[in-house]
Batch of 2 targets.
Target 1
Amino acid sequence: PVLADDLQALPAVAAQEPVAVAVERGSVRIVTAGVALQDGAVGERIAVRAQQSRHAVQARVVARGEVIVDE
């Protein structure tokens, strides 16, 4: 039989999955396409890279396929 302890929730964001990367400053919100470099659940901080960048940044997972950079 399958027990509850045998089950794991899928991450909201999976490594190498496309994500929407948002940055908010006051009333301005900018969103760009990116790639998750780590798995992450809602509320966790993970490394992501914007599509047009070579540099990774830390972002917080806010929903399936969505992260926000909040420095």
Target 2
Amino acid sequence: LSLRRQRQMCIRDSCKIRWNAAKQSYLFLDYSSSGTYLNGSQDCLPQNLEIEVPCGSQIALGNRENIFLLK
């Protein structure tokens, strides 16, 4: 993960991110109560459901000011 911008602290255990070497992508599981957003979307990612996320995606946690770039 590369931290792009951070103004406020994220709550611990907001999500789980695993690398899937076979598919060269990430597996993302959202535990947060305040929402997680993918690539600037206005819609929250589903909670407690693992989804595949491609390299180069931006994940915004909570208030969308905590943005992480998945390389």
